[in-house]
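Q: I have 419 residues here and want to know how they pack in 3D. Can you give me a structure?
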Amino acid sequence: MNFEELLKGSDCGCGMHHTCSIKHIVIGKNANKSLGGLLGGYNKILLAADINTFATCGEEIKAQIGDKLESLLVYQRDGLLIPNEEAVEEMQALLTEETDLIIGIGSGVIQDTCKYVSHKAKLPYYIVATAPSMDGYASVGAAMIMGGMKVTYSAHVPEAIIGDIDVLKDAPMEMIKSGYGDILGKYSCLNDWKLSRVVRNEYFCQEVYDLTMDMLVKTRDLGPALLRREPEAIQTLMEALVGVGIAMAFVGNSRPASGSEHHLSHFFEIVGILNDEPYFMHGIDVVYSSIYTQQIREKLLAMEAPATHETMSREVREKRIGEVYTAISDSVIALQNKMGWYDEDRSGVYAEKWQQIREVLAEAPSVDELLGYLKSIELDIAKFEEMYGKEKIETALCFAKDLKDRYTVLWMYYDLLVG
């Protein structure tokens, strides 16, 4: 992929000037060896990793930084590192007045923590990727867990993204599957974006939509090659993940890459943390969840006309939210009270635009087609159903939307099928 050309941005027909301030993207064999040459002007560097990511290439990166290394943070955790207040404070404690760059070695959690801390400190950061596991490398959003809530903060993009194929191809297979799943989930979120344009007149950019879809099309048939860890397939996946991140940077938020399938994923993660229950890696949850969001679309397509029905009373709804989200329920309720979407009557819009809505819903690939892609990379939807069970999944379909301020097919599901 020609990232240099893509990073130039464009004056778009949507009315926005799309821009992305990343200076360097190096993805390929021996990419880590390029880092030293990209450090001109920086002299006091904080290097951050966790135990596992440091083991992949930490010594090599330290050698590239040389005497510019001011401090090293290797998170010590028995379980999963969570991008929360504790992780942030641990990194912030090592910053000095002289620190001029943060470099992270890792993927999702390290990336988000470095992004969040560097933005707060008004410092640039680089990310040295260790797995093609998620699409946040080039995005402005820092997906954090603060006060128990999954919150995506608007931060900034890294100045440099380094992806060494020899490191990426040796990542745990679950992380490679997660990256593939994150990309395949774009079928769902892109459809949600179009749906929201119809229902809520939300801003939509065809150029960014097409860029994201292009990344998806280039990746969707790579399942078997990714299982074999073929370098070319790993590079294509990593480039797609970074390209989707640039698409998000172009519009200034995660809309081109995150919709109902991500809201479900966030639900399982947040509820898992709250209740000390297991959950899948992000991209795997995303792609499994996309099967269920597509089932919703197919149920809606079976309706000749939108049917009105009685929805939950406020009292019942808030009681259920309290039961589902326990310690963070007040924050969830406050968010939805602020949005006011429960108080809207969308039945008139649905009736007026039903044919147009159906045309959008019909653009998404079928459940059977999506299951074929999952099978190609040895992901079995039965494992998702075994992990969470029917009741938890049904609860997620009804209440995952409450975690976010974004219209998706989950709102139409609530309005027309279950509310």
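Q: Anything worth noting?
A: The longest strand covers residues 69-75. The two ends are 45 Å apart (CA to CA).
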